[in-house]
Amino acid sequence: MRSLLTVLRKELRENLRDRRTFMSALLIGTVVMPLLVGVMVNVTVRHGQSQDNKPVSLAVVHGERAPNLVAHLREFRIDVVAVTMDDAAAREAVRRQQHRIILTIPDDYATQLSLGLPAPVLLYADSSDAAGAGDVGRVRAALGRYASQLGRLRLMARGVDPMVLSAIAVQDMDVATPVSRSVLILGILTYMIMLTMLMGGLHVTLDATAGERERGSLESLLTVPVPREQLIYGKILAACVFMVLALTLSVCAMAVALRFAGLENLGMRENLNALTVLELIACCAPLAPLGAALMTIVAAFTRSYREAQTYVSLILLFPTLPLVFATTLGLRPTAWLMLVPSLSQHFLVTGLLRAEPVSALYVALSVSVSLGLGVALAYAAGRLYHREALLG
Amino acid sequence: MIEARNLHKHFGAVTAVQDVSFAAANGRITGLLGPNGAGKSTTLRMLYTVLKPDSGDAFVDGISATARSLDARRLMGVLPHGAGVYPHLTARENVHYFAELHGLGRAECEARTAQMIELLEMGEFADRHTKGFSQGQRLKTALARALVHGPQNILLDEPTNGLDVMAVRTLRALLLKLKATGHCILLSSHVMQEVGALCDQVVVIAGGKVAANGTPDELRARAATPDLEEAFVRFLEPLAGHP
Hints:
The complex is a heterodimer of chains A (392) and B (243). In chain A, helix 3 (67-75) links the parallel strand 1 (56-61) and strand 2 (78-83). Helix content of chain A is 64%, strand content 5%. With 392 residues, chain A is mainly alpha-helical. Chain B has 243 residues and is α/β, with parallel strands linked by helices. Chain B has two domains: 1-75 and 161-243, P-loop containing nucleotide triphosphate hydrolases (Rossmann fold, 3-Layer(aba) Sandwich); 83-150, no CATH class. In chain B, the strands form two sheets. A six-stranded mixed β-sheet of chain B has the order 6-7-8-3-9-10, sandwiched between helices. In chain B, helix 3 (91-101) packs across helix 4 and helix 8 (216-223) packs across helix 9 (228-240). The chains are: A mainly alpha (392), B alpha/beta (243). Chains A and B meet through helix 1 and helix 8 of A and helix 2, strand 6, helix 3 and helix 5 of B.
């Protein structure tokens, strides 16, 4: 136990003096990440707001054939631009994004309308253009409203109560707060937190394993009267300390950055207080031993620092998996999913940021599984360092 | 006192060491001499317990290197081949770290570290980070680290490899001093002159086997030549096979 602490102390001291550790553990967590988060949140919030208020631009061919319709569209904040083109030209214009949406009024529009028959209009839009889908919806809705207005007037003119048409009155009760829009943002946020944490221990692990071997100090170290696994545990612990340090710095810096980024628009706590920050750190920290032990194991199989760097960096991808699954499958936390490391941290962090009640069972499952797996992997790393091939 | 008894070691299909036995006595410098790839390093690694022999055993002051490896390690100071130091620690911190790992008490760590710095005349650079040290300075640091716990037995794998003349002289002076105080010193080398100048006993290893074992004079006599290098070559020939 004493030797373990000796190794831990030495690794901490040495790495605190190393510029590369400083860069990977401290700089990224405190400066780069909050900057990224701030910009990202800001852009998302702005984009969301501007989408709702921006008038839709609509090119209309032969607007003079339907002056009332055009006036109606203008009421719904649709900018009508009069253009002249035939069917082929209209298709081409939409395809080339010259105009996003084009409405053509055929010459029989007025006659059909006066006869009380369905009056045709042609709406050109590109359904594969996702960014324009909202605008098309707004135009369509405005057209529909105009059609139903006319229909009701016709019924009244024929002495029928227009209410007969409304057999069912659907009222949309939209409970989607801005929260739903923030799912992706929250996912990226938790990913950033976990990435920063793992990055914090990356260089320490590499230096203490592959680096030590490449420098030629490993063999000397193995001749001291200390069991090998104790040396390894000390190194893993050192990596954990740096990971938690990086985690703490990044969560604190993120809390500060988010204060300036209009949190309520994303349905998050408008005020990330000290307690939340502590809870966030406590939720993520149990993942540190797992990451450190995994990196140590991978480094044990490599022959040089560079090789180790390549493979160990792949472990940094590991926290992206929950982001992918959680967003594409729309996963909600369940007791089973809380058994998955990294995914469970994602759920806990998301819950905390949204100020949702966090189940004690979920926390217990997440913490115990992550820690347990970390301890098991650390033990495996200790066994691996008994391999003779380790000396190279 | 170090004893190797019938050591065997193979890596995959390659037999690295085959039935190697010899003894290195206290108060003497014993040299393991052999061409590159003869099995010198593998033999030493089994002695200083980082490799386990397939069969046979080694004894350090009578303690088995396989059954009680931790206890055996306490009795040895080891300078492995190409031993590196921690670049972000000072020379003093490098030495102190190993003193701690050897389980010395706090005050003893300080005292022994200071003592090694004095013995190896490292005062001038002891408190500088070892990054940018000269070869000689690095060697002294690594030596101080290996000797800080005051081991009776000292094992060095190709210690003079890549050193300049001054560094070699320093090392030689230190080894003679340690020999005079009754330490058992075992070193490996492929350089004939060095072994001839320094060693009281020479174990010639070739092809993973002991080809000859004796004092330089005995070896010369047995090979019937006044030249030690010539003797060395004659011992190797039957093993290498005539071209």
